[in-house]
Amino acid sequence: MAYKSAVLGFSFLVYSFETYIQYRQHKKLSEKHVPTALSQIVTQETFDKSQSYGRDRSLFLFVSSAYSQLQTAVILGFDLLPALWSSSAHVVSRVFVYVSRIRFGDNTPALTTALTSSPFADPAAVPEIATSLAFTGAFIIANQILSAPLSYYSTFVVEKRHGFNKSTFGTWIGDQVKTLLLAAGLGGPVLAAALWIVQKSGRQFYFYLWGFLLLFQLSMMHIYPNFIQPLFNTLTPLSPTTSLHAKIRALAERASFPMDKVFVVDGSRRSAHSNAYMYGFGNNKRIVLFDTLVEKADEEEVIAVLAHEIGHWKRNHVPVLLTIQQINMFLVFYTFSHFAHHPPLFASFNFPAPTNSTSYPTLIAFLLFSFVLGPWDSVAGLLLNLLSRKNEFEADAYAKSLREGEQLRGALVKLHIENLGNLNPDKWYSTYHYSHPPLVERLEALDKTD
Ligand SMILES: [Zn+2]
């Protein structure tokens, strides 16, 4: 089967569809009149500002999605992946020879022994895991470099023009470098371990691989907020003597929420967009407020936002989502186990057949398989957005049940205006892309008398 043509064809289909709905959205963003449902809530000036920000972001999206579609077409059309794979093996081998020369000295018997006894000396025999790590590293670095101009433009032109960017060039470069170092320090060992598990566990590898990644994901829920987030931001405990802290504690008691600590994070170092979130297991929940939220919303509104967040916890939204993701991941790995040694898949993307002593590289198999899975990813993304919007309504309803409905209403409007959120979304666009319901729909649901 012509897998590659199907993958390329489908990616152009998705690209065309997404560009079409982006165009519909762009037309809505060019409208001059405040929608009737919002005429009591926002001024013409606020509406104009939000439309203008939306149009700038929308133009940026037209360019960035064309750019990434072009990348996909070039990578697949010119068979850059097989080329990158074989160069990775060559580079690993060259590095090995170079390091051995330094270690044992040129033209010594020790060097000859090292070069004849190690598989690393021959590019065709370099162990799969080493080649996979080099391949992934090169792929990530190339991607970071190729996406840097767009990321720069988004931060320092679009966001800046509308007063959101607070990031300096130094912070931005630092973020890029830290992201790369994290990918190497954390992603490298995890990838190596995953490939090792596949090599060692035979036909049922999908089960062990899934178990390993589940454990990794669960530990990341602890590692990310405690060790990774602090690399990018500073979290300061909110003083327990403040009136805001007292109100948060009272809310936690009212909702029987096992609150441990409250932090304020310096989100304003990078962006003026505002937010709040929670993390932690069992009875040690931590609440994190963006400093921008604390500054812009009054205390009653912050409480209403937190009541909404507690609503997510009450309704078990995170465990349910995690379970759905795990079932999906298991099914994906299970299906993948039938494709891992499927010669037509590799042949279609112009990967050479393995020699007698080797098999198809797992990483490449998974990469090609995930291309083939593209249609399912699109459907799953749509379904997850549907579920997420339903969850948002439920969390709002919970806040309302705590008699925070009016305050939440005020907070939603205020934050939406401060963030210049889209006030005039196209129905197709919001159905496809939005993880949160449009403002008007949320206000209508809050207003409903039950
Ligand atoms: Zn929410």
UniProtKB/TrEMBL annotation:
**Bilayer topology term:** Multi-pass membrane protein
Q: What class of enzyme is it?
A: hydrolase
Binding locations of Zn(2+): H308, H312, E392
* Signal sequence interval, chain numbering: none
Supply the alphabetized keyword list: Endoplasmic reticulum, Hydrolase, Membrane, Metal-binding, Metalloprotease, Protease, Transmembrane, Transmembrane helix, Zinc
Per the UniProt entry, what are the Gene Ontology biological process annotations, in alphabetical order?
CAAX-box protein processing; ERAD pathway; negative regulation of post-translational protein targeting to membrane, translocation; peptide pheromone maturation; post-translational protein targeting to membrane, translocation
**Gene3D superfamilies noted in UniProt:** Metalloproteases ('zincins'), catalytic domain
InterPro entries (alphabetical): CAXX_Prtase_1, Peptidase_M48, Peptidase_M48_N
- Segments forming domain Peptidase M48: 241-449
Its required cofactor(s), as named, are: Zn(2+)
Q: What is its EC number?
A: 3.4.24.84
Q: What's this protein's function? A: Proteolytically removes the C-terminal three residues of farnesylated proteins.
Q: What is this protein called?
A: CAAX prenyl protease
- Please report the organism this UniProt entry assigns to the protein: Gonapodya prolifera (strain JEL478)
